[in-house]
Design a protein that fits this description.
- The complex is a heterodimer of chains A (118) and B (171).
- Chain A has one domain (19-113).
- In chain A, helix 2 crosses helix 3 (29-115).
- Chain A is mainly alpha-helical and 118 residues long.
- Helices cover 86% and strands 0% of the residues of chain A.
- Chain B is an all-alpha fold.
- Chain B has 2 domains: 1-80, RNA polymerase sigma factor, region 2, helix turn helix motif (Rna Polymerase Sigma Factor, Chain: A), CATH 1.10.1740; 91-171, Winged helix-like DNA-binding domain superfamily/Winged helix DNA-binding domain (Arc Repressor Mutant, subunit A), CATH 1.10.10.
- Helix content of chain B is 70%, strand content 0%.
- Chain B is built from 7 helices and no strands.
- Chain B has helices at residues 5-27, 30-46, 56-77, 98-116, 120-131, 136-143, 147-165.
- The relative contact order of chain B is 0.11.
- The chains are: A mainly alpha (118), B mainly alpha (171).
Chain lengths: 118, 171
Amino acid sequence: MRDVRELLSQLRDIEPPEGLKERILLSTVRRSRLYRLVALASATAIVVGLALGLFLGGLFVGQNQAQKEAVKLLEGIRQTSRPLEESSMMLLEAIVLTMRTTSMVQSQDEEVVKDEGI
Amino acid sequence: MGIGRKRFTEIVEESYRSIYRLAFSMLGSEQDACDVTQESFERLWRYRSKVDERAAYVWLRITALNLCLDPLRRRKTEPEPLDPNDEGSSLIEMRPDPLRRCLRKEEMLMLRRALDRLPEKYRAAVILRDVEDLSYKEISQILGRPENTVKSDVLRGRRMLRKILAPYFDV
């Protein structure tokens, strides 16, 4: 006659299928390690991105400043060239006036020569 | 308080077999037993900072037993057809002799069917006592019932099993 306990003790021979331990570790410790790696990679990417952004931003700001300075310089040149333009116009006008008076004097001399019958 | 990564790996190595055995004895399906075992350890990992290292084994068994209730309840509403390839399949490798293997598989099937017919509380008590070989004190911790109640549950469970198995075995 067999005892129920003896029959039940057969269940102690039950062995889990191969790979169950790996499956458990993969879904707990190793997955968490993987998450940690992914988090680390993401953090690194964020830091690199931020640094790059700051660097490029700095460059952009520098470029903007240079542009502003160039505009200021051009303004300055424009402002200094205005009096130059005015004076050159005055010079031109003076030259034209001189040329006109010279030609008028020359024609008057010619008329005098004609009248006197030279 | 709390379980580190290294300790957790040790706990897995030390107890995954017994948790699987408990789940398999309760459910009789390799697939369900694997799922319950994995889920139990996943929960332990999730709550590792709250679980006392010394209580980890008890905690795992309580969790596994609670997780067994879901598939058991599902089965009550939709009874699963018995899969002879699944039941006790993990035992096949244990016995090289084909005749003994067959007999053993048959016995396992009968035993599994008999266990399935036990009410849940008796089944858990009998498995923890006669399969897992735990003390009544440990079982009362796991099941959250007084030691004397556990003792009477085990006795009643065994008696019921004897009745169920009597037509097939000389018990």
